[in-house]
Amino acid sequence: MGGTRISMAKNALIELLKGLPKNSYFNIISYGTSYDSLYPNAKKATPHTIEMTIEKVKMMDANYGGTEIYNPMKYIYENLNVI
Q1: Per residue of the chain (83 residues), what is the pLDDT tens digit?
Q2: CA within 13 Å, CB half, 55
Q3: Contact 46, 76 (CB under 8 A)
């Protein structure tokens, strides 16, 4: 994914972040042939964390290779559950 497509994805993610319910929890997982979470643990959706995350999203690029979904989903299920 590159160029306009990554810009559209980042804009959509920013709008999603702005619409999160107050005091909900979130994290962002980037994935492809590898994966990485933006934060080690889920963050509480406060105005400060949302703004901080939006600035990080603006700097993101599509550089994770192909689209392997199993391992990132397994990671999310095993490590990021805050319920």
Answers
A1: 446 888 999 999 999 999 999 889 999 988 888 888 899 888 999 999 999 999 999 998 876 667 788 988 888 888 866 55
A2: 5
A3: no
The answer to whether the predicted template modeling score (pTM) of the entire model surpasses 0.90 is no
CA 20, CA 26: separation in Å to the nearest integer? 9
Q: What are phi and psi of 49, to 5 degrees?
A: -70, -35
Beta carbons within 8 Å of 26's beta carbon, 6+ residues apart: 17, 20, 42, 43, 45, 53
Q: How far apart are CA 71 and CA 51, in angstroms?
A: 29
By residue count, the chain amounts to: 83
Q: What one-character-per-residue DSSP string does 17-81 give?
A: HHTSPTT-EE--EEESSSEEESSSS-EE--HHHHHHHHHHHHH----S-S---HHHHHHHHHH--
